[in-house]
Amino acid sequence: MPSLSYSTAARIAARELRSSRGKFTFVLLSVAIGVAALTGVRGFSSSFRTMLLLRARSIMAADVSARTTQQLTPQEQAGLDKLVAAGGDESPVTELLSMASSTASLDPLLVSVKAVDPEKYPFYGEVVLSPVMPIAQALTPATVAVGDDLLLRLHLKIGDSVKLGTHTYRIVATVVDEPDRLSGSFAAGPRVLLSQTALVDSGLLAAGSHAARRYLFKLPATKQGSASSDDVVAALKTQLETLLPEAQITDYREANPALTKGLDGATGLLTLMSLVALVLGAVGVAMAMRAHLQQRLDSIAIMKSLGAGSGQIMKIYLLQTLLLGLGGGLLGVVLGIGVQLSFPLFLAKLLHLTPDFRLDPRVFATGLGAGLLTTLLFTLPPLLDIRNVRPILILRRAVETSDDPFTARLARKLRGSLAQLSAIVLILVCLTLIASRVSDSRQVGGYFAAGLALVLLVLLAMSWLTLYFLRVFLGRTRLHLPSAVRHGLSNLYRPGNPSAALLAALGLGVMQIVAVYIAQRAVVQEMQISTAANLPNIFLLDIATDEVAGVRSLLAHQSGVQGTPEILPVVGSRLLSIDGVPASQLKLQHLPRRVLQSINITWPATADAPPLGDKVVEGEWWTTQQSADSVQHPLVAIARQAADHLHVHPGQQMTFAAQDTQFTATVAAIYEPDSRHASSRAEFVVPQPVLAGLPVVWYGGVHCDAAATALLQRALYEHYPTITVINVAATLETVRQVILQITYVIQFLAAFSIFAGIVILASSIAGTRYRRIREVVVLKTLGATRVRIATIFSIEFAVLGLVAGAVGLVFANLLARLILIHALHFEYHFQPWLNLGAWAATAALTVATGWLASHRILGQKPLEVLREE
Q: Considering Cα of 367, then 369, then 373, then 375, what sign does the dihedral take?
């Protein structure tokens, strides 16, 4: 036969596509939905994540912050100037304590002074003033903005003057909210916000003053106009850590642990959803194309009998696959654009914001390329199955025996296995590249491909074992089972039935869908705890021991206060040594040495459990008995960040000095503090007996309705004028809203991904209808009724669904546990009712989909079906 040109092969492929439009619907549907899910989820999540990261930056007002208690040396200042010259911007923030006074009050008041550059600060977010005005207008060399409590305590009003240092400044506004209130100093005293120029004029920055300085950095925006990437932020942080070894360097991701964890969880899940869409689309393509090629074996056999070579036939079907992949991919891109456009419309009312929509060509190119490539890749195995088979054996494909010598059959099988193995390796390599592109991480792509290969191998092995034991079971119980049941079970391993491949495909799909659902549910549940309405948003500093009972009573009867107030005991202390090494000789990691001379120690409310919200990440918390014995054997638990700065691990000895008392404690545990509770004010926790008899200052945390915070502050001042009230309600509400938005988007996108996966799996199952046509004809010709045929197929569908569901659910829980605990650092809990429901739903979906696609065949006469064939 002469060489087959590409134009001729394309005409044959196109003619076959036109004559079998209905049969290729499943292929197009699988590719289109896979690409739509991939492009829609990835495109929208990219826009939404960019918007969320901008809001996360507003909580620190910058990309990166460097905090130090010392003035910069000329070399350090030159280094900062060099960093700024390379791109981006820098703005200083100075915080210190001072005394303020007024003509209306003879007594001076301790205040918390914050000086900023009003022309630059804040880089992200907004300072809210009352009356509303730009911060650059409010802060001049002669004016300041103050907290409401300062007006209350000094009996002032807007327009009056307040004296700071050697100068008097006019009050032009009150500070309602600052974007970096959570990341700044929680110092005693009402807030005074002024410009850097005004601070210099006040004379408060005398030599040796204990002022804390924060240097805020903003990196240049990317070419697309969005904020700088995490890699660029991390690089700047590393440079600053080298340049300022004594400073505490943090980036916007560390400004609020709950928000950071939520963003990381959302990013990980969105990546997982994109990869799931990719794999499920590939599964649908594989099953549908296998069904099509199995049905075209007669045509292939005829072409080979007429002298066509395997390469020529493969050229026809590869071009056909290319056309299907291209058509499905283009349709998927159009649907993906629709998905990306519709998500903001559906979520706008729920989220109270709409992400900027951008058509990112890279996202759609990735989706189209992934759809086309996976379609081509997953067509290789069924094509290779027929490459080295003689026409006479293709025509007798349903016959199990062969007259060929054993050696010939073995050689043929080895050649086919080698070709299939090469195709599988190629598929995994290409999927690794696609996954790396989709997730923007080579490591994730490698893990994804390795995990997929392992799961597929186990699923195929389990499918083979299931069919083997089913054959053995029927061999022993054949005479004791109803004929319909026996026939339905026998269908699973009849010649030509790809039950093993279908079981593997269904199991993989169930695993992917349920793993996404379990992971998103765990992430959402934990994030919803972060948005609870009873978390403290008002913090109280410097409560005396004899005031604790009165403060509790006042808060209990104050309108607007919700939940139980958190009151935390704190003992001031110094760190003397670690394992005998004096504090002056310790190697600290970005921690000013003077901090060791002023540390807070507390004890937990429950003797044998960490403070509310804190989680042990290393070591073990002490028991009730160990707490009782702690006077002789003191123990201490340390917040993770402090332990990292000090290079401390469980088992080491730390010596503290509180007043005139010294004690040496063994590090029992390292814990992750929960910044949403008052307990985060102290980074060292010991059992209560260790601190018995030492002077205690109490900190408090309470949740108050935003509208009632002013009344609460006034009531506290009237009864306890020495207590400092820190109002972060507005800032925490911003955090709460962002976390809520993350949870809504995760749930919405997960639901869409799960829906897409179900549709793809349904199309895979429905694709088997063309393999059942001949069997239905034979059964009806032999006298089988519709009810009997329906019973046989229902049993077959149900067993497929139950077995695939069981195997898929086992791996779904293993995958979800691995993702949640080791990748996203969330808790995993096995949910028996969820798994039972998913198992039953898988069986029901398999049966329903099988019959939705095949019921029409039962109503046709055998001759009509044969004519269609």
A: positive
